[in-house]
């Protein structure tokens, strides 16, 4: 993308009404604009990151064998009356009447709707196991929306639902989700720690929340410091293997890690040596639940068990806060100059800064870099505006592309451009082809 | 995808409440399930096609230089009061009150919201031209939703908005959209004819609707038969060229083609020789508008004109009915056995039917085909169920994958499999590697 043709309304001033750094930076970089309280328009830069995050979630869910679909945003109240949650849910549920005066609602979650899909088509244990998921906008009518997309009212969530014949099978689905979530967050450059949590309005005895440690987190968390040393890394996993998934669960959840909802000071002190005890704040970016037959019994989602009987299916639900993740990513990746995107989710793979726009040689070198990078399937952002160098650098630092190639007449005389890491600030001079090769290597793409 | 692990709830019977063939087939193939009146869940197969259609729309919009973003589904009523449309819009607008009793609505379109984005950031002619678009769910509270996704209440639409300094520039944006729409529909295998239409509630003197001819269309249309011979084809176009875009507009709109809203029998008879006069029914799949300063004046979206003055920007809006397109595609591509997907939008690139599941040789040959196709980036659907051949063929014909590879012990003895075109029904026997090579050629991918 050429910046002269893009829509990137960056702001110099920090907006006064934004209290936390991710909200401030998303506004300053022109990623989002508030449309009304707790509801945002995703401007082009923000939308690009949102799509990258969404794409990683899709890929990892499908790698785990989960099947994508899409449920609507508006639901009929009838299904929620069946499950008993229509009255339970408080004012956070946005209730709507249509022109025929029918009770509708903007879905805050989808257990009822997916259970209805399931019971409409599936009647036999032979069709199990089954896990369906979607990524769709939800609405939660927060009384005081704040912190930008971190606690918005209209938000994008991935929610997935497993249907299994037995509790054992459903717990394998639970473990499979845990593994896929670890991979998902790591690909985004985030460390999200699974912590024992509370079921809340979804219900369920088995539930873990995934928390990113950050000062601005809404939850207080308590954990064994050893847990932050765990990495999923690039290990291969067979998602069909009960043993392998169970092994990962045990590795990542056997040490003490709990949110304040489930924290127990006595267990904490008994189980964790004092020097490894940590308390911190965390941002919740996902949660997995096994809740058994809570919805299948209420809504009569039963299958033939192969022994002549009918049994309610065992279910769980599993969510990733897709739009909220952008806030968490920025909370965890920024400095005084702006955002520092991890390579996995960056809106553009690198920036190209032309120090002397209008200079034939500099323009030509920038165009050549742009073409080479684009031909490899990468997306550079080329600052081709007639601005002074300082302004161009400030914009690039603010929006936080992980790599920047700086092109100027002086370097070109020596046959070099400058490649700069946004994270370390380190620069090196090298010929343009080598800069391209290095970017290609970083992103794991083949030279064209 | 292996069918044994997929969720494809096909039905044998035609649902009684579905009146038109696309609605019937989308239900029978398990593409959609009604969630409530005029609101659908997109089951896995339907969701896949929806994504393919969406992807083509994205690619063609971006090729034309239009910038993607995303506006929310819910909007504040305040902006609609500014434009004067809050009261104008009738009961089709879904009006909502939030917990603080604020007036909200589920956006049926986004002129107000995008104009607010524009005026918040852009103040100079130097930032023009600018075209922003998004693909987002909309709601229109139809009194009698029907025909499945063709006239649903919650529907997915691409809507784009151009902002230009002058009428001439805005008309170039109009033409650019017309060209990009022609490419978009052709890539999907659809012929959509631009016809002179009526502005309706959006407003505007210049507007064309794109119609797909089909017996079940909601509009009566009148046209010169020469128009159906026009093809955009694979011609190269420079979207920055006023002349080229204008040329395409003239080529595709100079012949008589109007919907019943603007049809004029006298002009029709004078302009079109009797033997070329056609009347038919059409499905509207898109519409483009130039409406000048209607919204920018009402909402004070002005820019410096570079001559010391401030002028309201010239705007247009441009929509493609993404979810509705699936209905139109099926209306235009089906036979007695089911759907016949064009290659551009097919949910899976080809089917693999194993005639003797459990036979080592047949299973091995199917697995090898599956791997070869997947390695090239294609998505085959492998029917690995223990069903009889007839049931497998019926399912494949119903869901309409354009190509099917049939694998059985008898053919394998002679070293061949069977490759069948869904559209023509023609089959040929050839070695598995050649079947794969032919599929690769059809989809324009390189062998791995």
From TrEMBL, chains A, B:
The lineage of its organism: Bacteria, Pseudomonadati, Pseudomonadota, Alphaproteobacteria, Rhodobacterales. Its EC number is 6.1.1.15. GO terms for molecular function: ATP binding; proline-tRNA ligase activity. Residues 33-342 form the Aminoacyl-transfer RNA synthetases class-II family profile domain. This is Proline--tRNA ligase. Belongs to the class-II aminoacyl-tRNA synthetase family. ProS type 2 subfamily. One of its GO terms (cellular component) is cytosol. It is found in: Cytoplasm. NCBIfam families: PRK12325.1 (NF008979), proS_fam_II (TIGR00409). Keywords: Aminoacyl-tRNA synthetase, ATP-binding, Cytoplasm, Ligase, Nucleotide-binding, Protein biosynthesis. It catalyses: tRNA(Pro) + L-proline + ATP = L-prolyl-tRNA(Pro) + AMP + diphosphate. Catalyzes the attachment of proline to tRNA(Pro) in a two-step reaction: proline is first activated by ATP to form Pro-AMP and then transferred to the acceptor end of tRNA(Pro). One of its GO terms (biological process) is prolyl-tRNA aminoacylation. Pfam families: HGTP_anticodon, tRNA-synt_2b. It comes from the Bacteria. Transmembrane segments: none annotated. Coiled coil: none annotated. Homodimer. It comes from Pseudoprimorskyibacter insulae.
